[in-house]
Amino acid sequence: MNAMKTLTTALLALALAGPAGAFGRLGEAGKLLDFGKRAAEASEEISEQEEIELGEGIAAQLLGAAPLVDDPALQRYVNRVGLWLALQSERPNLPWRFGVMDSDDVNAFALPGGIVLVTRGLYERLRDESELAGVLGHEISHVVEKDQVKAIRKAMGREWTVALAGELSQRSDNELTRRFGERAFKAGTEVLVKGLDRQDEYDADLAGMVLAARGGYNPFGLVGVLHTLDAAKPEDRNLALLFSTHPNAASRLERLEASVGTLLDGYAESGATGRLYGRP
Q1: Which of 115, 133, 163, 197 has its CA 20 to 30 A from that of 253?
Q2: Does pLDDT of 179 surpass 50?
Q3: Coiled-coil annotation: which residues (predicted)?
Q4: Mean pLDDT throughout 176-186?
């Protein structure tokens, strides 16, 4: 990306920024205030609409660091594959949106409420559509299980407790509720940098393979991606964030082999692979 910051560096800057800085970048005071009030009043659980707004706020920060690739046909293609897979999930009615970010980094992000972003660096390493389906299926599974929401709630600690919710609901202090909303968005960025629980990643691998099979794809596309990552050089700086936030590819492959065995072999024989957009 030449003189531009890498996505990893930009994300770290966002995560370390004070709440006021994060709020200034979002530039959506009304939405932030409303989210803070409603999320607080909802105690430890947030509604689907609040989950969607939380994801949109985090996406605004993420895309500020690395915008979408300027290729409408590519974005339509990835959305088509992603939406089809999302329809096979337990949350088909979310407003699912998929995109390819213009970054050399190799990574993918699932955000609350149904936003899934894949970096150009990862997309360019995929060999066929079944591998794309494996990646998207993995990320969709995180959204279905609300893994990010749970991690954000954990990162916020007492700010997401019933006690604070009660305090916020009884007060008309706009500054307090604004800070709550800011902190939720900032915590979301921190989760992207620190990563989810390792077990969440293992579970999403298996669930992603199942989603790919339901969608008619060869479910072992994700296995192909993991083999590609396993063969990558550890010093490749474009893999730094991925390697720091996920279990290593070898351990993920071992877990999948132990969990799946021959259960999905029939789907592999009949599942589609398909040509990847932008490849000869």
Answers
A1: 115
A2: yes
A3: none
A4: 66
Which residue is it, tokens 């939405």?
31
Indicate the DSSP class of residue 172: -
Does residue 253 or residue 47 have the better pLDDT?
253
3-state secondary structure of 272: strand
Write out the two tokens for 66.
């690395």
Distance between CA atoms of 189 and 192, rounded to whole angstroms? Answer: 5
Contact 37, 53 (CB under 8 A): no
Quote the longest CA-to-CA distance of the chain: 61
What is the C-alpha to C-alpha distance for residues 75 and 211, in angstroms, rounded to an integer? 21
Do residues 24 and 15 touch, judged by C-beta distance below 8 A? no
Residue 61: pLDDT above 60? yes
Query: Is the distance from CB of 131 to CB of 223 less than 8 angstroms?
Result: no
Contact predicate 134/208, CB 8 Å: yes
pTM: 0.80
Distance (Å, whole) CA 243 – CA 54: 26
> Per-residue pLDDT tens for 239-274?
988 888 899 999 999 999 888 876 666 666 666 677
pLDDT of residue 158: 54
Distance between CA atoms of 33 and 10, rounded to whole angstroms? 25
